[in-house]
Amino acid sequence: MREGLEEQEAFLVRSLVDLEREHDAGDLTDGHHAELRAEYEERLAGVRDALVGGGRVPSRRVGATGGRPRRRPLVVAGAGVGVVAFAVAAGLL
Q1: Sign of the alpha-carbon torsion through 26, 27, 32, 38
Q2: How far from 27 is each of 60, 67, 76, 89, CA to CA, in Å?
Q3: Is 36 exposed, middle or buried (0-12, 13-18, 19+ CB in 10 A)?
Q4: 8-state DSSP, 58
């Protein structure tokens, strides 16, 4: 369980770095950048809390924690495509 959380933590940290690069390159609007950054930081905080608190990641469902609902799948898919496109353009893949 801990290993999986550590992998998630590393992935989210890399995602935040990639997000900044994409924004700096002009590939993301300020609004989209802020939205994705907030989501990644929220997820990262949950993973880090789980690492400290014994491995349980808090639920993100509405009502379960009083938070907002999960992100729409198309937004997440679009962000993923953007990250892959940036990686291809940067010669990483």
Answers
A1: negative
A2: 28, 28, 16, 11
A3: buried
A4: P
pTM above 0.70, yes or no: no
- The tokens describing 60, both together, are 């993100």
CB distance 58 to 44 below 8 Å? no
41-69 burial code (b ≥16 CB/10 A, e <16): eebbebbeebbeeeeebeebeeeeeeeee
Task: Match 């808090």 to its residue by tokens.
Answer: 58
Question: Binning pLDDT at 50, 70 and 90, where does residue 58 land?
Answer: low
Ramachandran category for residue 72: left, alpha or beta (phi over 0 → left; psi -120 to 50 → alpha): beta
